Amino acid sequence: MTATRDGGTMMRGTPKVRGYLAGDANRALFLYRQSARLTWLVGLDYGGARPAWTVGSRFFGRFYPNRCDLSPDGRLFLYFAQGKSQKKYQDKHQFWTAFCQPPDVNALLLLAHFDTWGGGGRFRPGRKAVVAPGMHPDFDLAGSYRVGGYDVVFRDHPFNDWTSGHGWTVDRYNDWGIGKAWSKTAGGFTVKRIVRRGRDIGEYSLHRYEVYDRRKGTLIFDGGDEFHWMDVDNRGRLIGAAGSRVVLFPNLPAILRRRGLETDLEEKVRRARRVGSVPA
Q1: How large is the average pLDDT for residues 203-225?
Q2: N or C: lower Cβ tally within 10 Å for the chain?
């Protein structure tokens, strides 16, 4: 368990949150998997005096979190998903890659797939968005697609390595040349991200995380199930998620004391539904 700012504890829970940080802006997006079939998009803008959270769309179906990405300015979200449809199989697009303006999930561009062998992608320098092919025949791979100021490029890519980039350095590769361990350093600490054995590439819990004190070389977080997602934002702050909670550690002393600013996304969703700002 983890100490919170009020001296309480944060229970370990089923992985439910995946975060995406904008590299060039004070913005983030979180997928909050409330249940196996229902996920909420929750936006965060921390450019003002106080963090501003926005509960956005709810999505019935399944996101593949390791194949999603947030644009550097935080204004465009690229995601791969499986829908929950009542239509017969041959009449529906069951899997698709889409681009939306978070936290609104409605697609600005939707690219359908037959299965999960393709799909998903990453934003790349030069205002390009790379999407793994394996497309439905309704879409022409030789065609020209542009969304939100980004050119869409189709390119094969090892799915497990979609998580490279964004400041992460590959430390180890597997036998097929795909990254399996990464690190990111900021403000006196280093975060290590390691692929868990036997986990599916579509799982929220694909990676485990370790945090080290750079000066002493000591381990702070041991890579267990305490946090199911971690990253470093553009201000050099550590952000972690466990259960429905997101915890922000502003600096190394806060990490060492295990005291961070905690936000419960479940409570954010409940409050938004009470005031009627999102569907009941």
Answers
A1: 90
A2: C
